[in-house]
């Protein structure tokens, strides 16, 4: 660390804490949830409507060593801004233990849309990625920031018997 005394030490801590804090705000693609990781693909999507249930089958092609996180969105070909995450889902959605063919999602669409959906241009976008696991990186960075802040506060307090540093006086404004 550069500088002398506590002031130089504080400056050194700030040089560590500020980048550590900024790292916690960053968006790390490696830690991202669903979104097309290498070697993970959803193929052979087929949709069948049976009464008030949409059955969406797919194959999950991925290396072993799951679990995987599977997400689904309802989209429209003629309206790129339309995106809906269905809420009444069951089956092979969310955390899926292993890859393989014949995965099935059941969507009770009439619970989300009691009068149904109009149009023929709807399709599903299904994505899969490895499950993120426990966020050890975020815990480690958060602990480092908290510990550094505590050290900076403790180091900044004056000990008994020492006088606080004198306040800096500001100059008067120029006369007019």
Labels describing this entry:
single chain, 176 residues, alpha+beta, Immunoglobulin-like, 2 domains, four-stranded antiparallel beta sheet, 3 helices, 8 strands, 26% helix
Kindly provide the name of the CATH class of the largest domain.
Answer: Mainly Beta
Number of domains: 2
Order of helices and strands: HEEEEEEEHEH
What CATH architecture label of the largest domain applies?
Sandwich
Determine the fraction of residues in helical runs and give it as a percent range: 25-40%
State which percent range the strand residues make up: 25-35%
User: Ends: how far apart?
Assistant: 46 Å
Poorly predicted regions are 27-35
CATH topology annotation of the largest domain: Immunoglobulin-like
Overview in brief:
The protein is an alpha+beta fold. 26% of the residues lie in helices and 32% in strands.
């Amino acid at each position: 660390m550069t500088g002398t005394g506590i002031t130089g030490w504080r400056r050194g801590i700030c040089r560590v804490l500020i980048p550590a804090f900024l790292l916690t705000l960053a968006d790390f693609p490696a830690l991202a949830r669903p979104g097309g990781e290498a070697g993970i693909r959803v193929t052979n999507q087929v949709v069948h409507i049976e009464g008030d249930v949409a059955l969406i089958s797919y194959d999950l092609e991925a290396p072993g060593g799951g679990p995987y996180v599977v997400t689904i969105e309802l989209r429209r070909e003629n309206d790129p801004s339309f995106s809906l995450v269905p809420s009444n889902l069951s089956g092979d959605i969310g955390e899926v233990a292993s890859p393989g063919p014949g995965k099935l999602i059941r969507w009770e669409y009439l619970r989300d849309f009691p009068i149904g959906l109009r149009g023929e241009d709807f399709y599903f976008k299904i994505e899969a990625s490895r499950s993120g696991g426990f966020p050890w990186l975020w815990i480690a960075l958060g602990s480092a920031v908290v510990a550094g802040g505590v050290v900076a506060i403790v180091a900044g307090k004056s000990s008994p018997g020492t006088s606080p540093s004198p306040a800096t006086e500001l100059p008067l404004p120029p006369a007019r």
